[in-house]
Structure formats: structure tokens, C-alpha cells
Specification:
The complex is a heterotrimer. Chain A is built from four helices and three strands, in the order αααβαββ. Chain A is mainly α. Chain A has a domain of 38 residues: Glu-tRNAGln amidotransferase C subunit, N-terminal domain (Histone, subunit A), CATH 1.10.20.60. A two-stranded antiparallel sheet of chain A has the order 2-3. Classes of the chains: A mainly alpha, B alpha/beta, C alpha+beta. Bound molecules: magnesium ion and zinc ion.
């Protein structure tokens, strides 16, 4: 890929951290080039003047889809926990949590 | 194998039994699945129980439903309680959901018999099924070629005659492109017509479940079963839409068909030629053909490859090793998350998670994600404007016929370009259908694509049925 | 340590659990204290393929809160707040971002201070972790167990403007906010059970200076710790500044036992939540008609209810205001108003309600309560006897207080008997009487005690005093 990449290796490493992925050095190089190529392609829209267009989050303009406050059946706990990597005393077990929720 | 219509008619009338049909299906699968890798998992016991239940209903003189005894392949990103659901990923290997997707519930209620789970690109990200962690599926028309993707296994299952019908999901063309590559009818319903509850999300605002069939009427039959409002999906349209089966017989007299340059330019010459022939068939049937251009459609690829990865990066965060699926143990949770995701996801999934995370991250949101959302509006507005002049659009489904294994793996951008013609309808949330229309000189199937305005999918069936009849002549 | 020359700037974020039957986005029960992972489904455990659907009742509660806080209720939508954490099953929280349901409100504190409400938005709660090994706290634990029963419980997060200037004022704000939220029926307001959780943003500055760097304090689960934590933190920051150090913007944890705040993170980690519109939900755009329907059904708010009692008593000294606040806070004001209209003296009814009635237990009927107050006011019951009668009414709320008084042996002493007893007590304690007669008023209590003892507590204290004074002046 000869074009200039719009993002750096450092950014790729930072983004991998946000996404909880670990990349090898080779992967960092490959991803930097590949993501760069995709972002370069996206230059066709980043250069557009789209002032005044409402960003489109949904295909159709539905609003106020609400559900009555009526209880429904919960899952069988044993069936749910059967799919978990580790459980103890009816709960999902994980290792040490470093730091509180942000 | 025959059509879903025929199977259901024969089972309902007692000419055959659901169990017999099912065993034929299993026999066909046993013969060739090893080679084609269409099914990742076969639910022998569950399918036999479902078929037996249908036969019992028939024996009792009651109505077994419109899909009585029809064997169906289910893309492996749809949840079925107690049945492995992998999404083609190591990270979900071995996981059995404790619940069933709405569409599968509706199939069962209509007498259909889900036989197993079909192969796909990991988390539906891909256009060749080469991204499956469980090996690629092969195109039955030429096993050196890809079947397309991401719903490649579902396409192969029908094209190889394993089942008359399968379900796929289409986020950027993942039903229509493999349908074109494998010579099938592939239909992506308007967004919100078919429930997404139980469909493992790739890109929530684009994903839609739809059928692979051998006939347009079968696509209508299956969609009428799986479609319609689902209170478990907030994006499900509150009202249903027209009788699609009836639309199949309505003809196209007086219909205005826009032959869209931007859904042709860049396609192989023989594909363009087939689309022109299709237009001629429609004209002969009384439609008016209008040449037009919607240049904004070209922007779809960029918008799509920012929006879909952005949503995916968030949808795929939950694969963290805590509650289900793979865990690679480490002493602290954050390190475990990293080790699990790094080992569990394949390269394409990582690439898109990275791309989407980047597009949403501080400082880049407006330039990438925000701009893509506005482009999405621009494209939708352009399509709406075109539909002021014509009733449907006609073009190619894909720029090429099925390509060889490995041809596009090294350069993701070249793979993404194979979705160029299918992406705009997902962005707009409209319905679209690929209908097989002859073969290339090398004998590979070619699909033509019909696009309709949102919620007017009935027109796809009008046009599709005429094309299907026209090509047969 | 001294705050001299500095002022404290406080803004509060209060997370309030809504009292719905089911969770925000699924039909699982919203219940506290059930067996772990029994109120869970694919949606609230974040299983692949699951989708959220918004609870109408939660929206109604959120709108009630917005209206009670004088907010504009607006077109809004939901966003995903992306971060990895094991108690967050989807590894994103569905919350509201730049388009919250309620914005631009106010709350008036009892002292007249008006605190601005920036926003009151809807979001989902997380699951709960239990830490194994170590101290049972997150730090030093070997492993954690996660229960998702709380995951997806509806929350309204109420963010104030930085309008408070002391720990006492912050405490008054939370107390008033809590009273409002409870009054509109949106929450049970139990801080100890975590149904109301407060985070405080605290900074200090010299008056007139721009705002200083703020720290956020978490884990404030009582009004007392809120006030203490803010006062500690403000002093800490002033000490830092006076020592020439820079305040680091950070999240700090309140350690109740040690009585101090501590830094929560070892490394400074910049958060990038990558907010974007939740594609699985559609916008929430309450119609004007719905908002008006909710507004017209809003109950009277605590401030108005306190005003009613002030009006009845005709007195607003601080002691009375405190009693009134207690009565309203415990939802006893309706009973007091009814008792007053049945003839009870309002001041006495408020005092007895604030001090004697158990809002959690059985309350006397308004008629019995009114009669008891009237008996006390007329001198038919002493204060001690009136309290005993009220206690007895908590067993039999509709009983006749006169019958209870009789059964407890609280028959009124005749004037003659009391008079005779007073004279007997005076002659038996000549020295003390001489001092009392000489003007030593403190001895009144001595004589009341003696008369009470002689009458086995049946005497009315006020009547005794007037007899003593008669004898002294006569
Ligand atoms: Mg919050
Ligand atoms: Zn739930």
C-alpha cells in the first residue's frame, strides 16, 4: 500500500487497547495499512458537505416503542450458568477485578 | 429437492410424511456436506421430533401449518435453545443458548423442520465464508469457488439440494450476494419486517433475516411465516405488509422499472448483459423501463464500512469470557478479557472491531461515524427521490460471479467492493431481492437485483416472479 | 486544617432506582434481595441475540421526576456508553447522552436556596459483584462472583449544577431530593440498600476565583457520610493548595470507617466511552398529552405539604420546621391534617407525630390520634400518659383513647386529691419549700417528682406547677 496511512501505529495500538485486543507487531503493521486503506477510501464521504442533513441512526422513524411493566418468566439459573466458563454459588466467577467501574 | 410449496402440499395432503422428507434431506447432507461444509451442526433428534410432531398433527386431521414438514437450514447466528450457536467463531464454540430466536419459533409453529445450523463468515463479517473459524463452505456449482457470504452455508445448503429453504441474514448483501453466486432466490426484507430477536447482532441498524429459496413464491411463503411484528424487537414495524404470495401473481404491467447505471457500472460485461436481458423480459411483460443514475449509491461503501464496524465494535464487546463462550484464563479480569478476545476472534472480526472503535473514538466521531450517518441520509434521500419516478430499481447483485478461494483474502478492500451493489438498500432499510438469471460463459450463476422502496417489498415479488418465468423460457 | 479564605463548590449526581415491577428493558422482576441470578433473562445478561424493549412505567416515573424537579421534558434518545466491566453484561451501558429526557430543572431547599438541575436522564443499573478473599472489598480480592439480578434495573440519574457551597447544604439537597422522589412514588429512597446512590463533585476556590479542579467522590451511601466526605475532601484540597500542590482531577472513594477519601485508581486511565445512538432502541418522544396527564396526576410535593402544616400551626420557628420536616418525610402529614380538622391542636399533633408515631408500623386512626392530643391538651392526660396511649394505639389503632387511658389506670385525679397531695408534699419537705418559695425555681422539678411519685404518675405536671405557684404567691 503506497498511500499515506491516515492513522499511526500508536493509534492502532491505542484502539486495540480500547477494544481489549492484543496485537502482535506484525498485526500492528498489517492493521495500520489495512485500516488506513479503508479510511482512505472513506475520504470520498469525509470531504462531502453534508451540512443540514440529519444523521440517520434508524431506517424508519419509529418512536415510543414501549412495553407494559408486566413480569415475564426468567431463565432457569442452572441452564444459564451451564453456558458460563466459571461459576460458584449460583454466580458467575471471574478473577481479580483491578479497579472500580469507571 | 423440490420446493417448499411442494413439500408442504405433499405433507399436508398425506402423500408423504415429514419424517420421510427429513430422512431424504439427511441422506443428501450425509452424501455431500463433508465436501461442501454447508452445515456446521445437525440437530438429528430435534428435527426428527419436529417432523414426527407434524406427522401427528396431519394424522389427527388438523392443520400442520403452511410449512408443514419443510426441512430448513438455519444460519448459525440465530439462537436455538440447547443447540450450539457459534456464529462461525471460536469465541462461541460450544455455547448453547438458553432461548430461541423469534424467527425459528415462528418456523416451528408453521410446521417447518429446522435440520441444523449453517456455516457463515465469523459473526457474518465477510463475503465468501472464508472467514468461518470452521472452514469455508464450497460452491456446489464449482467447488473451487466461494459460495459468497456471509450466509454461504445457507446458500450452499439450498443450492446443493440439502433443504428447499434456509434462513440467512443480510447486513450488507449477505443473503443476496451468496444467492447470486449459488443460483438462488435471496431476499432481504425491509428493515423491521422480520424480527431480529435471537439474531446475533453484527450491525443492529442494518441486519435483517431473510430466506434462500429456489423460487420467488417460496421466498414469499417463508417470509409470510417469519415476518410481522415482534414485541421483543423495538425496531420491528408495528404493522405487517402486503400479501407477498398474492404479489407473485400480479404481473408487472404498467410498473416503472429504473435500470440503474450505478448498480451496473463496474460489473462484468456478461453480468451487465444479463441485467439488460432481464429488463427486456420485464418490458415484454408490460413494464416501462427507465434508464437512470443515482450517483449517491457509490458513497454507500464508505458509509457502510464505518457504520457497520462501529455498531459491531459495541455489539461484540460482550464476548469477554465472563458469561458464556470461550475464556482464556488470566489472573485479573481485564487481562482475561484481552486474552479471550485475542484468541477467540479471527482477523476480519478484529479488523472491523478496530475500525469501528476508531470511528467512534474521541476526536474521530464526527469525521467518521457522524459523517457516515449523514451520508446514510443522503443516500436514502436519493433513493426516495428516484422512487418518485420509478416503482422499482433493477441492477446487478454483484460485480462478478463467484470468485476463487483466496482471491480477495489479502486485500480486505477488494473483498468489501464485492458488496458495492447490495449495500445501499441496507443503509436505506429497504427491501431487495436477487433472482437467478442465467449463467456466465464459465457456467457460474448470475443474479439480477431488484430494489424497492421501503415497506413496498410486494413489488419485489411482482418483478421477481416475472423474471423467474422469463428466464425459464 | 482550615477552610479560612476558601469556599467549597459542590455538584451532585444522584442515581435513583425506580420502583417498577420489572427491569428497564426486559420483563425480569425488579426485586431486591432475591437469590442470585434468578431474575435474569437473555436481555439483562447480555446474551448474544437479545434485544431491549423500554418499560413504559419506568418512563412514566422518569417523567414524574422531571416534572417534580421543574424540568423540561423533551424528545430524547438512548445512547450506548461503551466500557468493559464484568458487572456490565453487554460491556456497554444503555444510557442517555446529549438528548436526555429531562433538562433544566430546579429544586428549592428548605432554607430557600435554589439548586439548578442540569438533567435527569434514564439508564440501566449494573449487576453486583461479591469479592472473595482479601478484605471482601474489591482491592486485594482474589476473585469475584457476579449476580445480574440488579442488571437492567431502571435508574434515573439526577445531575445538579455546582450550586451548593457546604456539606450541610449538600445534605439538605439530597434530603429534599429524596423526599420529592419518594413523594412522587418513583422510588423507595433507601440509601442503605443502594436504591439511592450519591456521587459528589467537590472543588474549592477563593471567592471570586474561577472553579478549581474537582474530584468526584463515590460510595456515599448515607446523608451523614455525604456531609462528612465533602467536608473532609474540601479540607484536603485546601491543604493541598496551601502546601503548593496541584489538585489532580480524579475519582476518590469515601472510606466511612477511616473517615477519609482515598484515590481509587492506581493509574490515571482516560475514559473514552465512544457514545453513539443505541441502534436497538428508537427515540423516546413523550407527547404533550402524556406529559400533561402525568403532571395532573402528580401528588403534592414535600414543600407544599410542609406549607400546609406551617399554615395550620401558624408558627415557623426552626424547631417547629424541623418537626414538620420529619412529619412530611415520614408521610405522617395527612394524618396530622386530619387529626387537626377533628379538633386536635396542630402544634401538639405535629410534635407527637414526629416523636411518637412509627411510620413503618401501625398508625392510630386520625380520630383516635386527635382525641389523644385533645386529652393531653386539656390536661386529662399527662405527656407521659399521652405517649403511652399512642404506643397502645399502635396495637389497636381504632380503639378509644379514653378506654385505653382507663385500662392503663390513667384516670384523672380530682382537683381536691391533687391539692391535698401537693400540700402533704410541701409539709414533708420544708427546707426545699423554703428555698423554692425564696425564688429557687429549679426546685419545681423536685416537687413535681415527689407529687408524681405520690400519685403513681397520674398527676398532670402543668397542674402541679400551677398549684405550687399558687402556694408560693399565696
Ligand atoms: Mg450514570
Ligand atoms: Zn431480564
Amino acid at each position: 500500500m503506497s498511500e499515506q496511512s491516515p492513522l499511526t501505529k500508536e493509534e492502532v495500538i491505542h484502539v486495540a487497547g480500547l477494544a481489549r485486543l492484543e496485537l502482535t507487531d506484525d498485526e500492528v503493521t498489517t492493521f495500520t495499512a489495512q485500516l488506513g486503506s479503508i479510511l482512505n477510501h472513506a475520504a470520498d464521504i469525509s470531504s462531502l458537505d453534508l451540512e443540514g442533513l440529519v444523521p440517520m441512526a434508524h431506517p424508519f422513524d419509529l418512536e415510543n416503542i414501549l412495553r407494559p411493566d408486566v413480569p415475564t418468566a426468567s431463565l432457569d439459573r442452572e441452564e444459564l450458568l451451564a453456558g458460563a466458563p466459571s461459576v460458584e454459588s449460583g454466580r458467575f466467577k471471574v478473577g481479580r477485578i483491578l479497579g472500580e467501574a469507571p | 429437492m423440490t420446493t417448499a410449496h411442494d413439500v408442504a402440499a405433499q405433507v399436508r395432503s398425506g402423500h408423504t410424511t415429514a419424517r420421510e422428507v427429513l430422512e431424504q434431506s439427511f441422506a443428501a447432507i450425509a452424501e455431500r456436506n463433508q465436501e461442501l461444509n454447508a452445515f456446521l451442526y445437525l440437530d438429528h433428534d430435534g428435527a426428527r421430533a419436529a417432523a414426527t410432531a407434524v406427522d401427528d398433527v396431519v394424522a389427527a386431521g388438523q392443520d400442520p401449518g403452511p410449512l408443514a414438514g419443510v426441512p430448513i437450514g438455519i444460519k448459525d447466528n440465530l439462537a436455538m435453545r440447547g443447540i450450539p450457536t457459534t456464529c462461525g467463531s471460536k469465541i462461541l464454540d460450544g455455547w448453547k443458548p438458553p432461548y430461541t430466536a423469534t424467527v425459528v419459533e415462528r418456523l416451528l409453529a408453521a410446521g417447518a423442520v429446522p435440520v441444523g445450523k449453517t456455516n457463515l463468515d465469523e459473526f457474518a463479517m465477510g463475503s465468501s465464508t472464508e472467514n468461518s473459524a470452521f472452514g469455508p463452505s464450497r460452491n456446489p456449482h464449482d467447488v473451487t469457488k466461494v459460495p459468497g457470504g456471509s450466509s454461504g452455508g445457507s446458500a450452499v445448503a439450498v443450492a446443493a439440494g440439502f433443504v428447499p429453504v434456509s434462513l440467512g441474514s443480510d447486513t450488507g448483501g449477505s443473503i443476496r450476494q451468496p444467492a447470486a453466486f449459488c443460483g438462488l432466490v435471496g431476499y432481504k426484507p425491509s428493515y423491521g419486517h422480520v424480527s431480529r430477536y435471537g439474531l446475533v447482532a453484527f450491525s443492529s441498524s442494518l441486519d435483517q433475516v431473510g430466506p434462500f429459496t429456489t423460487t420467488v413464491a417460496d421466498a414469499a411463503l417463508v417470509t409470510q411465516v417469519i415476518g410481522g411484528h415482534d414485541p421483543a424487537d423495538s425496531t420491528s414495524m408495528p404493522d405487517g405488509y402486503d400479501d407477498l404470495l398474492a404479489a407473485c401473481g400480479r404481473g408487472v404491467a404498467g410498473l416503472k422499472v429504473g435500470l440503474c447505471r450505478d448498480l451496473l457500472d463496474g460489473a462484468d460485461a456478461e453480468i451487465i448483459e444479463r441485467v439488460r436481458q432481464a429488463a427486456a423480459v420485464l418490458e415484454a411483460a408490460g413494464a416501462e423501463i427507465v434508464d437512470l443514475s443515482i450517483p449517491e449509491l457509490r458513497l454507500g461503501l464508505s458509509a457502510y464500512y464505518l457504520i457497520a464496524p462501529a455498531e459491531a465494535s459495541s455489539n461484540l464487546a460482550r464476548y469477554d469470557g465472563v458469561r458464556f463462550g470461550l475464556r482464556v484464563e488470566r489472573e485479573d479480569v481485564a487481562a482475561m478479557n484481552v486474552a479471550t478476545r485475542t484468541a477467540g476472534f479471527g482477523a476480519e472480526v478484529k479488523r472491523r472491531i478496530m475500525l469501528g472503535t476508531y470511528a467512534l473514538s474521541a476526536g474521530y466521531y464526527d469525521a467518521y461515524y457522524g459523517q457516515a450517518q449523514k451520508t446514510r441520509r443522503l443516500i436514502t434521500n436519493a433513493l426516495d427521490a428516484a422512487y418518485e419516478k420509478v416503482d422499482v430499481l433493477l441492477g446487478a447483485t454483484t460485480p462478478t460471479t463467484a470468485f476463487g478461494f483466496g482471491d480477495k483474502v489479502a486485500d480486505p478492500m477488494s473483498m468489501y467492493l464485492s458488496d458495492l451493489f447490495t449495500i445501499p438498500t441496507n443503509l436505506a432499510g429497504h427491501g431487495a431481492m436477487s433472482v437467478p438469471f442465467g449463467n456466465s460463459a464459465s457456467g457460474m450463476p448470475i443474479g439480477v437485483q431488484i430494489l424497492s422502496p421501503g415497506r413496498r417489498d410486494d413489488r419485489l415479488f411482482q418483478v421477481g416472479a416475472v423474471l423467474e418465468a422469463g428466464v425459464a423460457k | 486544617m482550615s477552610m479560612a479564605g476558601y469556599e467549597t463548590i459542590i455538584g451532585l449526581e444522584v442515581h435513583c432506582e425506580l420502583k417498577t415491577e420489572t427491569k428497564l428493558f426486559c420483563g425480569c422482576r425488579n426485586a431486591f434481595g432475591d437469590e442470585p441470578n434468578t431474575n435474569v433473562c437473555p436481555v439483562c445478561v447480555g446474551l448474544p441475540g437479545s434485544l431491549p424493549v423500554l418499560n413504559q412505567k419506568a418512563v412514566e416515573f422518569a417523567i414524574r421526576i422531571g416534572l417534580a424537579l421543574n424540568c423540561e421534558v423533551k424528545w430524547s434518545n438512548f445512547h450506548r456508553k461503551n466500557y468493559f466491566y464484568p458487572d456490565m453484561p453487554k460491556d456497554f451501558q444503555i444510557s442517555q447522552y446529549d438528548l436526555p429526557l429531562n433538562e433544566h430543572g430546579t429544586i428549592e431547599l428548605p432554607d430557600g436556596t435554589v439548586v439548578g438541575i442540569t438533567r435527569a436522564h434514564m439508564e440501566e443499573d449494573t449487576g453486583k459483584s461479591t469479592h472473595l478473599g482479601g478484605s471482601g472489598r474489591i482491592h486485594g480480592a482474589d476473585a469475584s462472583l457476579i449476580d445480574y439480578n440488579r442488571s437492567g434495573v431502571p435508574l434515573v440519574e439526577i445531575v445538579s449544577e455546582p450550586d451548593m457551597r457546604s456539606g450541610v447544604q449538600a445534605r439538605a439537597y439530597v434530603a429534599e431530593l429524596r423526599a420529592i422522589l419518594v413523594a412522587v412514588g418513583a422510588t423507595d429512597g433507601r440509601m442503605e440498600e443502594g436504591s439511592m446512590r450519591v456521587d459528589a463533585n467537590v472543588s474549592v476556590r477563593k471567592p471570586g476565583d474561577p472553579f478549581g479542579t474537582r474530584c468526584e467522590i463515590k460510595n456515599l451511601n448515607s446523608l451523614r457520610s455525604l456531609q462528612r466526605a465533602i467536608e473532609y475532601e474540601a479540607l484536603r484540597q485546601v491543604d493541598c493548595i496551601e502546601a503548593g500542590e496541584r489538585i489532580v482531577q480524579e475519582t476518590r472513594h469515601w472510606d466511612e470507617a477511616a473517615g477519609r477519601t482515598g484515590s481509587m485508581r492506581s493509574k490515571e486511565e482516560a475514559n473514552d466511552y465512544r457514545y453513539f445512538p443505541e441502534p436497538d432502541l428508537v427515540p423516546l418522544a413523550p407527547s404533550a398529552a402524556w406529559i400533561e396527564e402525568i403532571r395532573s396526576a402528580l401528588p403534592a410535593l414535600p414543600k407544599a405539604r410542609r406549607q400546609v402544616l406551617v399554615g395550620l400551626i401558624g408558627n415557623d420557628d426552626q424547631a417547629t420546621l424541623d418537626l414538620i420536616a420529619t412529619v412530611v418525610d415520614r408521610d405522617l402529614d395527612a394524618l396530622v391534617v386530619e387529626a387537626a380538622s377533628a379538633g386536635a391542636p396542630a402544634q401538639l399533633a405535629v410534635t407527637r407525630a414526629a416523636n411518637e408515631l412509627n411510620a413503618e408500623g401501625v398508625l392510630p386512626s386520625a380520630k383516635s390520634f386527635a382525641t389523644t392530643c385533645q386529652m393531653e391538651a386539656s390536661g386529662a392526660l399527662s405527656a407521659t400518659q399521652a405517649k403511652a396511649v399512642l404506643a397502645a394505639l399502635s396495637e389497636t389503632p381504632d380503639a378509644d383513647p379514653k378506654a385505653i387511658a382507663a385500662s392503663l389506670g390513667f384516670e384523672q385525679l380530682s382537683e381536691d386529691t391533687l391539692s391535698t397531695t401537693v400540700d402533704e408534699v410541701i409539709s414533708a419537705n420544708g427546707d426545699e419549700w423554703a428555698r423554692f418559695a425564696g425564688g429557687d425555681d429549679k426546685l419545681a422539678q423536685f416537687f413535681i417528682g415527689k407529687v408524681m411519685a405520690a400519685t403513681k404518675g397520674k398527676a398532670n405536671g402543668k397542674a402541679v406547677i400551677s398549684l405550687l405557684n399558687e402556694r408560693r404567691s399565696g
